[in-house]
Write a structure and sequence with these properties.
five-stranded mixed sheet, alpha+beta, 5 strands, about 10% strand, rod-shaped
């Protein structure tokens, strides 16, 4: 329920409680200002006694209504007794017609059945019409005619008002039902959004796991197709050496075995380059990055700075390894191609992602003409972007000839299990 609706209900509750007192007091004031309408001491005493009875009846009802939540037999009895008291007062003085109007205000609150509500409204219209016709007793037939005319007019007017009130109540109930339906729909929508967010997180996790499995399969295939085959070739050449007594032939087989060993070593280094970094086994990601930057700066005699922002969280091994490998590759590129005098590496932890920014003041280049992966195992910008994408992230490159290079990587946060 809205605040406006709660305020309106509270005000209506005040009206239901105090309107009988207000209308009775108004009638008493009018009667007191026109004492000639109630001649005779006895009639005045009777009027005072009936007024006291009305007040006592109202005080009793104020106490009895606290334990009730809706119309019942007790409320209907109170309604009937109050009508009887109001009718007697109108018979004593027409100004008490104001008190009769109480039955028009709360009949729907005190009487459950609509049929009896209509009966109660008609019953209150009788003393009201009598008061409007000049008060009881009627002295001639003309007052009776006026009485019946006013009775008809009052009931027609009350019927029209009741009709419009019921229509407004139906519209209010329809609006309340619509609001309740919208609230249920909103609740269901919020639940669906939460479920979609959970499914999205599960899909990201599954995608990462699939990427890990695919990477392991790729490494296994590479090892089988390169290192294993080279080792078989080395064994074959060595066996050939042991089976020959010709020195030139033995030298030839040994040279071939050495070539295969060198090739196998290169393939092993290239494969190991894709595995989890050893430095992360002992240091956190920020520590490993700081050490990498410091060592790179000492090796290449270049000014390099590492900056950490945000609250450090324990990332998943795959995410941390990707960030470190991207940093190493970017620093390698800066040393090989940029000729930079200054390099900055910034790691930023945010609520749901971690970003890595690497900037240098080298000569820059055209990002649309990226170098291909070289034969010595360097992956270049393409490999860096592939690493980011395998971890559901992105890598962007901003560079222009003469204005340096900036590489920005954004990865979703996957906490370490």
């Amino acid at each position: 329920m809205t605040i406006a609706g709660t305020t309106l209900d509270r005000r209506w509750e005040l009206v239901l409680r105090w309107h009988p007192y207000y209308l009775l007091a108004t009638s008493v004031l009018l009667v007191s200002s026109q004492l000639d309408l109630t001649p005779g001491t006895d009639q005045r005493l009777i009027t005072v006694a009936v007024i006291v009875a009305a007040v006592v009846l109202q005080l009793w009802w104020d106490r009895a209504r606290r334990s009730r939540t809706g119309p019942d037999a007790t409320s209907a009895t109170y309604f009937a007794l109050r009508w009887l008291v109001s009718a007697v007062l109108v018979g004593l003085n027409p100004f008490f017609a104001f008190y009769v109007a109480t039955g028009y205000v709360d009949n729907t609150v005190l009487i459950r059945s609509r049929r009896w509500q209509a009966v109660g409204t008609f019953a209150h219209s009788l003393p009201m019409a009598a008061a409007q016709a000049g008060g009881l007793p009627f002295e001639d037939a003309g007052q009776w005619i006026i009485f019946f005319g006013l009775l008809l007019a009052n009931n027609v007017l009350l019927g029209m008002i009741g009709h419009f009130v019921r229509k407004e109540e139906e519209r209010s109930e329809a609006r309340a039902a619509t609001i309740a339906a919208l609230e249920r729909t909103n609740t269901a929508l919020e639940a669906a959004i939460e479920e979609n967010a959970s499914l999205h997180a599960q899909l990201l996790l599954q995608a990462r796991e699939v990427g890990v499995v695919e990477e392991r399969r790729r490494l296994a295939a590479e090892i089988h197709d390169t290192i294993a085959q080279d080792l078989i070739g080395i064994i074959t050449q060595l066996q050939a050496v042991s089976g020959t007594s010709d020195p030139p032939a033995a030298r030839e087989h040994l040279d071939r075995a050495a070539d295969l060993a060198r090739h196998s070593l290169g393939e092993a280094r290239r494969s190991v380059h894709n595995l989890a970094p050893l430095s992360l086994a002992h240091d956190t990601l920020p520590q490993a990055l700081r050490n990498t930057v410091v060592q790179w700066a000492e090796r290449h005699h270049t000014r390099a700075e590492f900056t950490l922002t945000g609250t450090v969280v324990d990332l998943h091994d795959e995410t941390a390894a990707a960030i470190l490998r991207i940093t190493e590759e970017a620093l390698t590129n800066a040393a090989k191609h940029a000729g930079a005098c200054r390099v900055g590496v910034t790691l930023s932890y945010m609520d749901d992602e971690v970003t890595l920014d690497i900037r240098d003041d080298g000569p820059g280049f055209d990002p649309h003409r990226l170098p291909r992966r070289d034969r010595n195992g360097g992956f270049g910008l393409g490999g860096m972007r592939a690493r980011a994408e395998r971890n559901s992230g992105t890598l962007t490159v901003e560079s222009e000839p003469g204005y340096g290079t900036a590489i920005s990587t954004r990865l979703p946060v996957h906490w370490k299990e």
